[in-house]
Structure formats: C-alpha cells, structure tokens
C-alpha cells in the first residue's frame, strides 16, 4: 500500500516541488485547496504533475474542514505549507495572516490529535521568526526569536504550537526553519522573482524600469527543490525535532540584481533600477544567515544548487515565458 501525504498550500511554490518529490518516492499525494471558483494550477503544470495529485477542499481558517479532511484521509504524513507568506503584505493583512498562519496550525494539530495521532506533521517555519535575533552573525536552532512583522509573529506562534503538541501529546511534529528558498515558480510579489521577471520585461521591451526597496538587505537564498527534500527527511527520523535549513551563505539583494541582469544579457543594471520607498518594510531585517549544522549532521542534507545557478535558472525561466508570450502575440495578430 502506498504511503499517503497531505500537503496544504499545494498551489504555492514549495507544494508542487514537494509533491513531485513525494510522487517520485511512490506516495499517494493529496493537495488541499480552498474553494476557489477558478484555482490556479500553473505551478503544478510547470512541473508536469497537476493530474497526479488528488485534491481535497479545505481552509486553514475553517476548523471543521480540517477536521473532516484528517478524519477522512488519516494520512501518514501532513506537510503544512499553507500560509499568507508575503512579509510586506502581512502588515496590511495582519488579521488573515494570523488566522491562517497561527490559528490554522492549532486547528490542524487538534484534528490530528483527535482523529489521526499516528500522523507525522511538518510545520513550515521561517527564518523571519529570528528577525533581529542575530547576535552571533548567524541563526541556528538556539537563536532567540525577534520577529519584525505580523508574518514573523504568526510563524512564532505556529512554531511553539507545534513544539507543544509534541511535548504535551507525544505527537510526531517537526518544525523546519527554512531560510529563503526560491525557484522559477516563486510568487511574483517576492523580491527575487520580481527581479527576474523585471529583467525579462526589460529584455523584451515591455518595461524600462525596475522598482525595488532595500538593496542592502542580505538573505541566505537556496533552491526550493532542494529544501523540500529536507522537509521529507525530517519526517523519516526516529524522533521528531526542529531543524534550521539553509545554504550557510548570504547575499545582498544588490548581488541578486547584478547577477540577474548579467544572465539577462543587459549591461549597466543601475540604468534600470529605481529605489522606491514604497517597497521598504516598516521594520527591516538587515541580514539572515543559516547555521544548518544539525540538518547536515542528522538528516544528511545539503543544498545542491548554488546561488549563481539559482539566479540563472530563474532568469532563464522568465525569459522563456516572455519569449513564448511574445511569439504568441505576433502569431495572433497575423
């Protein structure tokens, strides 16, 4: 009998990569989607797995729907990737961010405790929980949390809820404190994809400026396809635990911009980039850097895709998208 896994947030970035990985391992994968009138399966289509996942209706802010899903499926593993995950937007959507990211985790864990206590649970935590807790120049599992946004705060709540269900009820629950991870299917609102999409638009004459915020912020950026393998490994261990996952090197937004324009074949990036105060956070996190020794030692995990390769991959994917779009428009006008 195939192993079963439920992935919330299946339509986002990490969900499709994780689903593809689990399918390659022989899992039967269920993906939870909200009751959209027209759900966007574009990211699953990009990876060619849309018709290989079975979809179930649910909502992280609707406790009864989560109870019904867990009771019906009783999956071997649950990967909670659902979130309002855009940090900047969390200031304007603080209530929904809290309901989905924080209370939703409580609802889901209560459902597992009630109907499927043998289920192994993975919570997608984030480096944004650390915020200013960077006293040693890096962050690891012992670094103090000091979140700087409603998003980071909601994730701290979810982190400790996950820990408490493990310690109080003996459930197999893990937190993966993943540092920034990107891909060609990263949401367009995130700075990395905004940059590569902007480069492609400039390349094809669809734009002449790219508006950005703080170019000096530094992040530990890796490839989402690598990171989801670490999440799976966490649930294969004998004992549940929490792990920091990152590349161990950080780069500034400026470095990302320089590489993106280079791979887009566009010289003199400064000619196109505009620093726009609208895109600066109310409370900035200047630098995040993972010290992921525990994940490397216990899980045997390490990143495969370098920062340089990641930027190139993303730029090439966006160039291809706009090239195909431009050809279609030309053909349609004939």
From TrEMBL:
Its cofactor is NADP(+). InterPro entries: GDP_Man_deHydtase, NAD(P)-bd_dom, NAD(P)-bd_dom_sf. One of its GO terms (biological process) is 'de novo' GDP-L-fucose biosynthetic process. Residues 6-314 form the NAD(P)-binding domain. Belongs to the NAD(P)-dependent epimerase/dehydratase family. GDP-mannose 4,6-dehydratase subfamily. HAMAP family: GDP_Man_dehydratase. This is GDP-mannose 4,6-dehydratase. It comes from Candidatus Roizmanbacteria bacterium RIFCSPHIGHO2_02_FULL_38_11.
């Amino acid at each position: 009998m195939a192993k079963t896994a439920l992935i919330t947030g299946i339509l986002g970035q990490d969900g499709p990569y994780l689903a593809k990985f689990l399918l390659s391992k022989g899992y039967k994968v269920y993906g939870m989607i909200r009751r959209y009138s027209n759900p966007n399966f574009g990211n699953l289509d990009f990876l060619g797995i849309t018709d290989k996942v079975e979809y179930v209706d649910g909502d992280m802010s609707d406790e009864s729907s989560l109870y019904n899903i867990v009771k019906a499926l009783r999956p071997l593993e649950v990967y909670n990737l659902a979130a309002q995950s855009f940090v900047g937007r969390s200031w304007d959507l603080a209530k929904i961010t809290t309901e989905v990211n924080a209370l939703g985790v409580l609802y889901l864990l209560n459902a597992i405790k009630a109907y499927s206590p043998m289920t192994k649970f993975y919570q997608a935590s984030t480096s944004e929980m650390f915020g200013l807790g960077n006293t040693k120049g890096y962050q690891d599992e012992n670094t103090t949390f000091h979140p700087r946004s409603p998003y980071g705060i909601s994730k701290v709540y979810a982190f400790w809820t996950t820990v408490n269900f493990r310690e109080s009820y003996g459930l197999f629950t893990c937190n993966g404190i993943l540092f920034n991870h990107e891909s060609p299917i990263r949401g367009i609102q995130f700075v990395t994809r905004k940059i590569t999409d902007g480069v492609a638009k400039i390349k094809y004459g669809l734009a002449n400026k790219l508006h950005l915020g703080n170019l000096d912020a530094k992040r530990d950026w890796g490839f989402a396809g690598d990171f989801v393998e670490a999440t799976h490994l966490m649930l294969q261990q004998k004992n549940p635990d929490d792990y920091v996952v990152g590349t161990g090197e950080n780069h500034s937004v400026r470095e990302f911009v320089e590489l993106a324009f280079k791979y887009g074949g566009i010289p003199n990036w400064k000619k196109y980039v505009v620093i726009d105060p609208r895109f600066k956070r109310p409370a900035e996190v200047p630098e995040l850097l993972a010290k992921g020794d525990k994940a490397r030692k216990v899980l045997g995990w390490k990143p495969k895709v370098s920062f340089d390769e990641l930027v190139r991959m993303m730029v090439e994917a966006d160039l291809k998208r706009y090239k195909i779009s431009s050809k279609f428009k030309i053909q349609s006008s004939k």
